[in-house]
Design a protein that fits this description.
Methylamine Dehydrogenase, Chain H, 30 strands, 2% helix
Length: 388
Amino acid sequence: MTRHDRTLTALAATVGSATLVIAASALPAAAATPQYGDAGHGAVFVQLNAPGGNKIAAYSRAGDGRLTAAVRYSTGGDGGTAVGAPVDALASQGSLTLADDGGVLLAVNAGSNSVTSFDVHGARLHRESLVASGGKFPVSVAVRGHLVYVLNGGGAGSVSGFRLRGAHLLPIPGSTRSLGLANTTPPAFLSSPAQVGISPDGTAVVVATKNNGTIEGFALHRDGRLSATPKITAAPGPVPFALEWSGTHTLYVAQAGDGRVVTYAVRADGSAVQRGSSDSSGQAALCWLVRVKDSLVGANPGSGTLSTWGIGEHGVATLRKAVAANPGGGPIDLAASRDGRFVYVQDATQGTVEVERVGQGAALGSVQTVTGLPVFGGGAGMEGIAAS
């Protein structure tokens, strides 16, 4: 067994891994003025991902970051669970995503191969469309302007493009491309893709697929269709997972196998050039990552901790605090408020959302623990969180 194989085997006891797929894209339309939550503060949305009927739990956000439960909304589809998932049912980041202007919420329904769009008014949602995802077992969705991409993790895996007309999703004909995987449906969590993302300048679509440990780039034409041949770049360490962006084309990748954040420049042809790599946090299973102003916050479910990185010269991520917070349990998906003052941490093993205040240098301080959410167990659990 190679060192890479041993790393993957050890990681299976905590949380999954990732490969990346990148595509060049046309610049999206400009975003509208952001819409925020009730009373001018914000809202947080949590995907419950129940197999018998997926729902979104909505919370209004006060000025001090505290959440108050509002209403739970049906997506019209079913949740799902990857085979062998240890704490995170979808083994992904970005299964619940707000549009750039905060006016549209997108949710995947892994158990029914569909995607739901909601019109957003504060903490209130109105379901606008329910469409086929273009593949099997969708696990992540990304939006930039009016362009949407969905990542399907089952079978061969695929990416499919959509356009937003208002809050309605419209498929882009001929945009689906296979990832060439050999997964079951539902897929095993280690081989299921992890995330899809669109670069801030609209020139790339990025997909994380875990075990291969590479970055694959597809050219994306102005009509939203992908080229057939990808560019391939090997990651410098084991199991890249979560994706975040800074500037116009700087990509941050969380490596679950060694606790490092790797910085790339993504080119229009789909290739990725490494700019740098942070020191390891020494924490177990760094799988989730969110940008907060000039910092990054990562969740380590294997250690029950949060770590932070600064965005330094030329956009390269550098480790700040290996243990910036210790919420315990198994912290998974993360979301930051749009004003950068709070981070919301989803924990499916405890059925909670932890509210963390963000201070100087991304210092974190606990504000509230929201309870009453589903606890992971019996092959089911919540996953996906978004904040305005």
